[in-house]
Design a protein that fits this description.
Helix content is 63%, strand content 5%. Helix 9 links the parallel strand 3 and strand 4. The chain has 3 domains: 91 residues, Fumarase C, Chain B, domain 1; 214 residues, Up-down Bundle (Fumarase C, Chain A, domain 2); 97 residues, Fumarase/aspartase (C-terminal domain) (Ribonucleotide Reductase Protein R1, domain 1, Orthogonal Bundle). The strands form 3 sheets. The chain has a two-stranded antiparallel sheet. It is elongated. It is mainly alpha-helical. The structure holds arginine.
Length: 459
């Protein structure tokens, strides 16, 4: 492509070192779509005529079919997807093919291709996030009354509905969707026409190209346009954050699936056995997701580190953006898919969650609140219930087994109605502030999410 200036061919080693076709072939459809739009702008500017434009479009469509049919021969000597397609086009249709690269550089071409890729994949990830939310909602709806201890410091804290715990993940995934939607605005800007770095002396109608490719805006500075990969970094961050959320859910699932917790039973289809220990049923999907999240964060670091020292404008370092991007996109899509499938059919072992929740200490805070409602300052109430808890531990008897006289040794404010507090259902019902897990609240939240998904149009 640059034979004019050079007397010898590129060394084989340099070709092997510098090629990106082994992975950027995946951009072929976007590259072709971009070239078809560019050809329209060239025709509009009078650089090619309608016949030449038609030949280009036909040639590009044939190439697309050949790639999809597996007949296309990618050549490492042609470095990347852009040169592979352009060279095949010129071989196919001759002179008009050689005109296609007018007023265009691979720098703005690759910027366009990566944006088109990120745009499509953002939509795909957004859809999978919603599927994942729906799967968790299904599990919540299948077990509307299941109660579990809520934990802080992985120590039993207060009772919650299991559905409330699951809905926490819907909130996290909703923020992930918002981030993808927001990043989409910055992806969705058309860079073609920026040339190598300073546009072109051949004026093309950039808005026409944007319109053809369905971009609502075009970039405003050619130098920024060809070197900007902020939108890739943002997407990699968004994906990392999704990974972090799935990794936290993984940790919950791994704990829940253990004999010690025994809150959940994953289906045989979503667990693996051990080659040595016949009894094992391992939550590998969750472990892999927790493990792969490190890789997602690594990919973000890779890209940020690649960008940080680059002088303006395009530098070949930027070719290193694609492998981490493709990897993160592939992995998060798979993770969301497999997790959604696994969670939708998981079984909650309600007898186990119930017995864990019958730990009387889960209601210690409720007892303190009881005293507060009788006029005791909370700090004093806290100390009273603390002493009562110590008493319960030494006596090996729960709160419900204490007589009223026993209670009154700790505070005269205790009355016969104290036993009403010592009931899980009462405890749950009393938690009715916005965001708290009363059954009525959780029911309203479930309906809200169901309506939202039914009305969703995706990204
Ligand atoms: N394969 C290159 C990349 O991914 C395309 C742009 C090459 N531009 C250049 N001036 N060598 O970044």
């Amino acid at each position: 492509m640059w034979k004019g200036r050079f007397q010898t061919d590129t060394s084989n080693l340099v070709q092997r070192y510098g090629e990106s076709i082994s992975y950027d072939w995946r951009l072929y459809a976007y590259d072709i779509e971009g070239s078809i739009a560019h050809a329209a702008a060239l025709q509009d500017a009078g650089i090619i005529n309608k016949t030449e434009e038609r030949a280009i479009v036909r040639g590009l469509r044939e190439i697309k079919q050949e790639i999809e049919g597996g007949q296309f021969r990618f050549k490492t000597s042609l470095e990347d997807i852009h040169m592979n397609i352009e060279s095949a086009l010129t071989e196919k249709i001759g002179a008009p093919g050689a005109k296609l690269h007018t007023a265009r550089s691979r720098n703005d071409q690759v910027a366009l291709d990566v944006r088109l890729y990120c745009r499509a994949e953002s939509r795909a990830i957004f859809g999978r996030l919603e599927d994942m939310q729906s799967a968790l909602l299904t599990l919540a709806v299948n077990h509307p009354d299941a109660v579990v201890p809520g934990y802080t410091h992985l120590q039993r804290g207060q009772p919650v509905l299991f559905a409330h715990h699951l809905l926490a993940y819907l909130e996290m995934l909703e923020r992930d969707k918002e981030r993808i939607r927001d990043g989409f605005k910055r992806i969705n800007v058309m860079p073609l026409g920026s040339g190598a770095l300073a546009g072109s002396t051949i004026p093309l109608n950039r808005n026409l190209v944007a319109q053809k490719l369905d971009f609502p805006a075009i970039t405003q500075n050619s130098m920024d346009a060809i070197s900007d990969r902020d939108f890739v970094a943002e997407l990699l961050f968004d994906i990392s954050m999704i990974g972090v959320h799935l990794s936290r859910l993984s940790e919950d699932v791994i704990l829940w699936a253990s004999a010690e917790f025994g809150f959940i039973e994953l289906s045989d289809a979503h667990t693996t056995g051990s080659s040595l220990m016949p009894q094992k049923k391992n939550p590998d999907v969750a472990e892999l997701t927790r493990g792969k999240t490190g890789r997602l964060i690594g990919n973000l670091m890779t890209l940020l580190t690649t960008i940080k020292g680059l002088p303006m404008t395009y530098n070949r370092d930027l070719q290193e953006d694609k492998e981490p991007l493709f990897d993160s996109v592939d992995q998060i899509k798979l993770a969301l898919e497999v997790f959604a499938e696994m969670m939708a059919v998981a079984k909650i072992k309600e007898e186990r969650t119930l017995s864990a929740t019958s730990d009387p200490f889960l209601l210690a805070t409720d007892l303190a609140d009881y005293l507060v409602l009788k006029g005791v300052p909370f700090r004093d109430a806290h100390e009273i219930i603390g002493k009562l808890t110590a008493h319960s531990i030494t006596e090996k008897r729960g709160f419900a087994e204490f007589g009223l006289d026993e209670y009154q040794q700790y505070s005269k404010k205790f009355e016969g109605d104290v036993y009403r507090v010592l009931d899980i259902q009462t405890a749950l019902k009393a938690r009715k502030a916005v965001g708290a897990p009363s059954p009525a609240n959780v029911g309203r939240q479930i309906t809200k999410w169901q309506k939202r998904f039914a009305a969703s149009k995706g990204l």
